[in-house]
Amino acid sequence: MSPEEKADATGRYFLPRNVEEAERMQNQHEWLKGGANGLVLAPIDLKRENLRVLDAATADGYWMQDARPIFPEDTEFLGFDNAPEGYPPLNSKPPLKIVQQSLVEEFPAEWKDAFDFVHQRFVIPLFKSEEVPLVLSNLTGCVKPGGWIQLVEMDFQTPVSEPLESCKAVQMVHKLTSGVVSDPLAATKLAGRLEENGFVNVESKAVDMIAGSANPNQEMGERGARNMLSVLGFFQSVAKPEMIGLTQEEWADLPKRFAEEMEKYKVALKVYFVWGQKPETAK
Ligand SMILES: C[S@@+](CC[C@H](N)C(=O)[O-])C[C@H]1O[C@@H](n2cnc3c(N)ncnc32)[C@H](O)[C@@H]1O
Q1: Is the peptide bond before 108 cis (omega within 30 degrees of 0)?
Q2: Pocket of ligand 1 (CB under 6 A)
Q3: Atom of ligand 1 nearest to the CA of 102
Q4: Which residue from 14, 112, 257, 274 lies 20 to 30 Å from 236 (Cα-Cα)?
Q5: DSSP per-residue codes, 254-277
Q6: Which SUPFAM superfamilies does the protein's record reference (predicted)?
Q7: Closest Cα partner for 146 from 108, 114, 103?
Q8: How far is the centre of ligand 1, averaged over its atoms, from the C-alpha of 170 (Å)?
C-alpha cells in the first residue's frame, strides 16, 4: 500500500473518539459478552504460564480489562490503537499497557511471533476487501506458532430480524450501513482468510445479537437497543437520505421507526466470532 492509500484507509474511520464513545463501546462490549456467553471462544489453554495477549484496535482497552480475570495472573496484556489518546484512560489496576500503532503500518519487529493470543473486534469492515490481507498478515504475524487469533466482526448486510417483512426500518438500516462500510460482508470472509494465511483449526460461531424487547434478557436487550440507536446516529451523520432512497422526512424519522421495531419485533444482527491457530511448525 502506498502512503496515500494507507492514509485513505486510516482516515475512513468515522466514529468519534471521546468519553461518550468509550461508554457506548463498553455497553456494546457487555451486550456482546452476554450474547456470546463469554469473551474468549478460541480453545486456548488458559492454564499455561506467561501467556502474552495482544488486543488490536483496543480503543480504551476495556476488552483487556474485562478479559484479564479469564487468564492466569501472570499473563501479559498489550493493546494498540491508531488513536488511543482519544479515549479517557480506564482506572485499571495494574494500568493497561496501550500503545499507538496503525493496522496498516509495519508492526514492531518484536511483535513477530510474540503473542499466544491476538484479539481484534469491530474494525475490519472499514477496510476495502483488497486492504484486508495486509491487516491480517500484520495480525497473524504477531501470533506465536501454536498460538491463536480471534476476530469478532458484524455482518452488516445479511438481515436476521423477524418477521423481516415487518422490519422495514431495520432493512433501511442494513442498506445504510452496507453503503457506508467498505466491505459489509467482511465478517463472513474471515475464516477463509485465516486459512489462506496458513492457520489451522479455523472455526467460527455466528451469534444473532438481539437488540430490544425480544431479547430474553431484558438488560441485554436494552443495552443492544441503546447501542444500535447510537450507531445508527453515527452512520446517518456520514450519509445522506438519497443513498437509500429516503426523503428528508423519512430519514429524520428512521431512528424512531427503528426504535419501534426493536420494541415490537425480533431485531437482531449477526456477529461472527472467528478463530484459528498458527501451526506449531510455522516460521
Ligand atoms: C469500533 S472501535 C472498537 C474498539 C474495540 N475493539 C471494541 O471492540 O470495543 C474501532 C477501533 O479501531 C480503531 N482503529 C480504526 N482504524 C484503525 C487503524 N488503522 N489502526 C488501528 N486501530 C484503528 C479506532 O480508533 C477504534 O478504537
Answers
A1: no
A2: 10, 13, 15, 17, 25, 29, 57-59, 63, 81-83, 102-104, 121-123
A3: 20
A4: 274
A5: HHHHHHHHHHHSB-EEEEEEEEEE
A6: S-adenosyl-L-methionine-dependent methyltransferases
A7: 114
A8: 25
Choose among 276, 269, 278, 177: nearest CA to 223.
269
The DSSP secondary-structure symbol of 108 reads: P
Beta carbons of 191 and 203 less than 8 angstroms apart: yes
The CATH architecture one would assign to domain 3-157+181-213+268-277 is 3-Layer(aba) Sandwich (3.40)
| d(C-alpha 222, C-alpha 142), whole Å | 37
Residue closest to 206 by CA, chosen among 185, 183, 232, 178 = 185
Q: Residue 2: left if φ>0, alpha if ψ -120 to 50, beta else—which one?
A: beta
Residue 183, all three cell numbers = 466491505
C-alpha 123 to ligand 1 mean position (Å): 6
* pLDDT per residue as tens, the chain (283 positions): 899 898 888 888 889 899 999 999 999 999 999 999 999 999 999 999 999 999 999 999 999 999 999 999 999 999 999 999 999 999 998 899 999 999 999 999 999 999 999 999 999 999 999 999 999 999 999 999 999 999 999 999 999 999 999 999 999 999 999 999 999 999 999 999 999 999 999 999 999 999 999 999 999 999 999 999 999 999 999 999 999 999 999 999 999 999 999 999 999 999 999 999 999 985 5
DSSP-based three-state secondary structure for 150: strand
Q: Provide the grid cell at 211.
A: 437488540
Q: How far is CA 77 from the centre of its chain?
A: 18
Every domain of the chain and the residues it spans: 3-157+181-213+268-277
